[in-house]
Specification:
The protein is of the alpha+beta class. Among the domains are: 77-123 and 460-484 and 577-764, 3-Layer(aba) Sandwich (Collagenase (Catalytic Domain)), CATH 3.40.390; 197-395, Orthogonal Bundle (Neutral endopeptidase, domain 2). 52% of the residues lie in helices and 6% in strands. The protein is built from 29 helices and eleven strands. It has a four-stranded mixed β-sheet. A three-stranded mixed β-sheet has the order 6-8-7, with helices on one face. The protein has a two-stranded antiparallel ribbon with strand order 1-11. Helix 4 crosses helix 18 (422-446) and helix 8 (219-229) packs parallel to helix 14 (341-348). Belongs to the peptidase M13 family.
Length: 764
């Protein structure tokens, strides 16, 4: 679907259905990556024990920390998994962690060592613990794709294959498709030899479509439709997905493009940046379309400035009460007749009769009409070419697009010439386009039945605790509470990987699913287009059918999670259920602290500033009483004000404040998730006490729960990347998610014996 808020996660892509005109076909925003520390288990054991002894002798336990119960040798876990976990925590801690006050400086205490040992590569704008996990997954996938197809003896017990079939199986055919796409991406010499020609061919196709349709008056609609079939948003973003007020029905929506050209509408207010951007557009388009007058490309950025000014802010896009505007297709088309929405939707809708659509910003469409009336046709044609370049430039190797590649790096504060290692790019490429086949092989190597069972147990525990919290919440009236409890019971939990739509354990199902995706070992650019065309066609093919509630919005190797309001579901791919966030072989306070808090975060989204608008069946409706809404809004305002006090440094050195309203839903979810998970772990630990970790007797187990949570958010960011995120990301900066969430946790304050036990802000 076009850019419509559906996925809500700890660091999730904001939209389940995205046609991203700048990132390229089906290329969703992914976590950046950096190398993990790699040491042997023997070294970990030595490090943990030596580190513990030396620190205990040099720094006695500070008086303000509660003393842990007497530890017998038998209570200490010395398995390789426990030693590994303990060593990871010790190296993340600040070198002088025993001297820091956890009640005022917990982020430095927990993450000071992480920053010391993790530098950003030239190709990275930021990185955090999730980045390390993603790169571990990438490395595993690289080993899979650069090896031969696994034979019967190398399949794990958990393999979806169990036994290979005689002859060349569908699983082997799927594996060959994966490796063909991967190898075509790796073949840089061929890509360089082909040069700009594939992109030039598409540009010519776009230009001809626009030129030929001018006489009929359909130039805009035909060109927007053609780009949309490649997954590229221009002027508008049409798409298909669940209707919020009737979540079992697929509806069409039309939105402004999420990204006009620069990362956010606010960046168009930076004159120096806009001038640099304009120079890049002129440089690229003058070479790519030499027959176009040189003054025309310069006007493209002026058009983008007008589109950006007309576009809603990120905060407005996040507000479902403003973005859900159903109307007839006829009425929507009347808002901007020049764009001819009816023609665009007819071209994409696979023969389905569409009469009703969701317009996320009627104001944008009205202003778009005036902008188009005031823009020369030649400028519009160059604009469409530029959108094509932005979307597809990464699939060619040519001096023509080099200025833009450098500019994109500079926007994030990176080295203009930097590029990720090629294999990383190619793993992402395969995951974007053939992700469910890749998921099948990832799950075999990186997941287990025990992990799935433990994940299900944690999520069920979180549900139980959140239900109790709702029943104890005095500011909710009884009727609203009863419906809220029913909503928790109705939440669908998806753990690990899909077994329907498609079933990744069934090779024939996967082969059929990707049947129309044409992959060659020699045509990287065409592979990308085929992957994108498949994804767009698959999205629109849902029209006229019931919503498929078995679909997933993230592949199995993704290090993330999400809550989907219309589906009332929480989803945890196998990728996030990995060390150090999740491990069945270490004391439970570590997994509950990190993964459990993520699970609680997702469940809390069902009742945050967006999720509260969706009832127990996933319908967008007003199901809260007026008194409950007023009480919620009063308490929510505390979170808005609290997080607005956090800042990052702007381009001019002046502080830029976090948008407390934009980040409200995520901050509420962080607080609610942490509290629910702590209660869930406490009950489990009372039934079955956890072992202690070596070298960490400075902390109680309850304190290590919060250390584990915060370790997940340890990270670094370049200043330019941090600024871009302030304007575009509904998540607060990582450091704020530690400091703010700890300040809002009564359990944290009690565990560390802070002077005040009262949370700064509290809902649940």
């Amino acid at each position: 679907m076009s850019e419509k808020t559906v996925l809500r996660g700890p660091d999730a892509p904001k939209y389940q259905w995205t046609q991203n005109g700048d990132a390229g076909p089906r290329q969703t925003r992914k976590l950046s990556r950096s190398w993990p520390l790699r040491v042997t288990m023997t070294a970990l054991l030595a490090a943990a024990l030596l580190h513990s002894c030396s620190r205990l002798m040099a720094n006695p336990r500070p008086a303000q920390l509660p003393v842990v119960d007497k530890i017998d040798d038998a209570d200490i876990c010395l398995t390789p998994a426990c030693i590994h976990a303990a060593s990871e925590i010790l190296y993340n801690l600040s070198p002088n962690y025993q001297e820091l006050d956890p009640c005022t400086d917990f982020e430095e205490l927990v993450c000071g060592g992480w920053r010391d040992r993790h530098d950003l590569r030239p190709d990275q704008g930021d990185a955090f613990t999730g980045t390390i996990m993603s790169e571990n997954s990438q490395l595993l996938l690289r080993h899979i794709l650069e090896a031969s197809y696994p034979n019967a003896s190398s399949h794990s017990f958990f393999s979806p294959m169990q036994l290979v079939t005689p002859g060349r199986s569908a699983d082997e055919a799927n594996f060959e498709k994966l490796t063909s796409a991967y190898n075509a991406c790796l073949d840089e010499s061929t890509i360089q030899k082909i040069g700009i020609s594939p992109l030039s061919d598409i540009v010519d196709q776009i230009s001809k479509a626009f030129f030929l349709a001018r006489g009929s008056g359909n130039a805009l609609a035909d060109t927007v439709s053609l780009l949309a079939k490649y997954g590229i948003s221009a002027l508008v973003s049409p798409g298909a997905g669940a209707d919020e007020t009737n979540p079992d029905v697929v509806v069409v929506s039309v939105s402004p493009p999420w990204r006009i050209g620069l990362p956010s509408k606010e960046r168009y207010e930076d004159d120096a940046l806009v001038k640099k951007y304009q120079d890049v557009i002129v440089s690229v388009l003058s070479l790519l379309t030499p027959n176009v007058s040189k003054d025309v490309p310069a006007k493209v950025v002026d058009l983008e400035k007008k589109l950006a000014a007309a576009s809603p802010s990120t905060e407005e896009r996040e507000d479902v009460t403003k973005s859900y505007n159903p109307m007839s297709l006829q009425d929507a088309s009347a808002l901007a007749p020049k764009i001819d929405l009816a023609s665009i939707i007819s071209s994409l809708s696979a023969g389905q009769d569409v009469t009703r659509i969701i317009v996320t910003s009627p104001k944008y469409l009205k202003e778009l009409q005036a902008i188009l009336d005031d823009t020369e046709e030649a400028v519009l044609q160059s604009y469409f070419v530029w959108k094509t370049v932005q979307a597809l430039h990464s699939y060619v190797d040519s001096p023509v697009v080099k200025p833009y590649k450098g500019f994109v790096n500079e926007l994030a504060g990176k080295d203009p010439e930097s590029e990720p290692e090629r294999w990383r790019t190619c793993i992402d490429h395969v995951d974007d386009g053939l992700g469910w086949i890749l998921s099948r092989f990832f799950v075999e190597k990186a997941f287990s039945a025990a992990a799935k069972d433990f994940g299900d147990l944690i999520v069920l525990d979180i549900k139980d605790q959140f239900t109790k919290k709702l029943k104890e919440t005095e500011w909710m009236d009884d009727e609203t509470t009863s419906k809220a409890v029913e909503k928790v019971h109705n939440i669908v939990q998806k753990i690990g990987y899909p077994t329907i739509s498609p079933n990744i354990t069934d090779p024939e199902s996967l082969e059929s699913f990707y049947n129309t995706t044409n992959i060659s070992t020699e045509t990287y650019f065409n592979n990308a287009l085929s992957m994108s065309a498949f994804a767009v066609a698959d999205e629109w093919s849902a029209l006229g059918k019931p919503v498929d509630r078995n679909q997933w919005g993230m592949t199995a190797s993704t290090v993330n999670a999400y809550y989907n309001p219309p589906g009332n579901e929480i989803v945890f791919p196998a990728g996030i259920m990995q060390f150090p966030v999740f491990d069945v072989n270490v004391p439970a306070y570590l997994s509950y602290g990190a993964f459990g808090s993520v699970a609680g975060h997702e469940l809390s989204h069902a009742f945050d500033s967006t999720g509260r608008h969706f009832d127990q069946r996933g319908n967008y409706s007003d199901w809260w009483s007026r008194s409950t809404i007023e009480a919620f809004e009063k308490r929510a305002e505390c979170f808005v004000e609290q997080f607005a006090n956090f800042t990052v440094s702007g381009p001019d050195g002046k502080p830029i404040h976090v948008n407390g309203r934009l980040t409200l839903g995520e901050n509420i979810a962080d607080a609610g998730g942490l509290s629910a998970s702590f209660k869930a772990w406490s009950l489990r630990a009372a039934e079955k006490p956890n072992a202690h970790l070596p070298g960490l007797d400075h902390f109680t187990q309850s304190q290590l729960f919060f250390v584990s949570y915060s370790n997940w958010w340890c990270g670094k960011s370049r200043p330019d990347t941090a600024v871009n995120r302030i304007y575009t990301d509904p998540h607060a900066p990582k450091f704020a998610r530690i400091l703010g969430t700890m300040a809002n946790s009564r359990e944290f304050r009690e565990s560390f014996q802070c002077e005040s036990k009262k949370p700064t802000c509290e809902l649940w």
